[in-house]
Design brief:
Elements: H1 2-22, H2 26-54, H3 60-67, H4 69-88, H5 93-96, H6 98-112, H7 126-145, H8 153-174, H9 190-206, H10 209-220, H11 225-243, H12 246-253, H13 255-273, H14 282-306, H15 316-348, H16 359-371, H17 373-378, H18 386-389, H19 391-401
Helix pairs in contact: 1-2, 1-6, 2-15, 3-14, 4-11, 7-8, 7-15, 9-14, 9-15, 9-16, 10-11, 10-15, 11-14, 12-13, 13-14, 13-16, 15-16
Length: 402
């Protein structure tokens, strides 16, 4: 049932946090973080699936808007909060603070989530599970360690090669098994294809912001961790504001038009961050980050909703799995891309340490990556997601009035 899995995920996450807080060595800490990540990865798709099954399509945009607020706030508020806890308390409390939060989550889940169960459950695709898990993990590990001298270049290359082969094997396996772990045939649905594909490319660029922006403000401009954290909170404020009016934008202009125009503005706001210099007025940076937060928030809301516009109720679980995997991979690869671009910029310009001039090529690189999402979104029909946006009701109402 949904409640059982969700509570189990919270318990795994809480136990992982405790193990992180009491770890005494780097291997122990890495293992604990791995365990903690399992719980976190379980919570996201289950929580989204509960929303999708509980809310009718006319109210789905508003529901998903509220659901994505933590995803917008976490990367922004996490660094300054972590810096504050580390500075004034102890780094272990970064993990111990998850204990009361998890207990509160268990209470709220028990009170508000029904333990809904499917009428029939297909057997778990163990072969698909092993192939997809190995493939995603190895590719991410290989990309994340490339050029960082954490492991040898041969090991990084081997991870990427074997991970890619594993993912290719999964695609071959999924096409030939009756009940695959992730049904790739769902990607034939045009709106899901646009939401997952376009969303992955957009997140590939946006995912680098929590990595690049604090580094630029602290190492490039000399801001304190707390000072830079307060500045980056502006994007969270913009995101919160946009959540309140996102549904109105989509109802008036439609998904396709909003995602194309707003996505372009989001890419430009990302590139604009690369124009910051130590001499840039604080107010200008604040405004750019605030407006950029609005663009990103509206785009995430639109992409999350359009993915499920044409998915049948009995296939929502599979669609949620596809969207969640794509989201996690794209955000992680965004950090990898941003780090790689920053390192290349630093080396090509011959700087011994990171300086402010190293960051603009990195921001430009991730902005270009995010821009590739726009052509995918342009392939959508003009009336895509009309039921979700409430445009069908609006047209029916105007027709009745005439």
């Amino acid at each position: 049932g949904a409640l059982t899995i969700f509570r189990s995920a919270i318990c795994v996450f809480m136990l992982g946090s405790i193990l992180c807080g009491v770890s005494q060595s780097l291997p122990e800490f890495v293992a604990a973080r791995f365990f903690q990540g399992i719980g976190g990865a379980m919570m996201v798709p289950v929580g989204r699936l509960v929303i999708l099954r509980s809310v009718d399509k006319a109210n789905l945009v508003k529901a998903l808007s509220y659901l994505t607020i933590p995803a917008m706030f976490g990367p922004v508020l996490g660094p300054p909060l972590g810096g504050f806890i580390t500075t004034y308390f102890h780094w272990r409390w970064i993990f111990f603070i998850n204990i009361p939060i998890s207990i509160l989550g268990l209470y709220l889940a028990t009170r508000f989530i029904a333990n809904a169960k499917a009428d029939s459950v297909a057997p778990l695709d163990w072969i698909g599970f092993v192939l997809s898990a190995l493939g995603c993990s190895l590719v991410m590990m290989g990309l994340a360690t490339t050029g960082r001298h954490l492991v040898s270049g041969d090991i990084s290359l081997a991870c990427v090669v074997f991970g890619s082969l594993s993912l290719a094997a999964y695609v071959w396996h999924a096409r030939r098994t009756e009940h695959p772990l992730i049904d790739l045939k769902l990607l034939k649905i045009e709106t899901l294809q646009a939401g997952v594909g376009g969303g992955s490319l957009f997140r590939l660029g946006i995912g680098a912001i929590p990595f690049l922006l604090p580094l630029m403000l602290q190492l490039g401009f000399g801001f304190s961790a707390f000072h830079s954290g307060l500045l980056t909170c502006a994007s969270a404020a913009g995101a919160m504001f946009m959540k309140t009016i996102a549904a109105k934008f989509l109802k008036r202009y439609g998904f396709r038009r909003v995602m194309i125009v707003n996505g372009t503005c989001g890419v430009l706001s990302l590139a604009a961050m690369g124009l910051f210099t130590p001499a840039t007025p604080y107010a200008v940076m604040l405004i750019v980050l605030l407006i950029g937060g609005c663009f990103r928030s509206l785009q995430f809301t639109s992409l999350n909703a359009i993915s499920y516009a044409d998915v049948d109720t009995n296939r929502l679980s599979q669609a949620t799995s596809i969207a969640s995997v794509a989201q996690q991979l794209s955000v992680g690869m965004g950090v990898v891309l941003g780090g790689f671009a920053l390192q290349m910029s630093n080396q090509l310009q011959g700087h011994a340490t990171l300086v402010s001039q190293d960051f603009w090529p990195a921001f430009l690189t991730v902005a270009v990556a995010a821009s590739f999402s726009i052509p995918l979104l342009m392939r959508l029909p003009p009336d895509a997601g009309a039921e979700l946006a409430g445009r069908n009701q609006a047209k029916a109402g105007s027709a009745g009035a005439t």
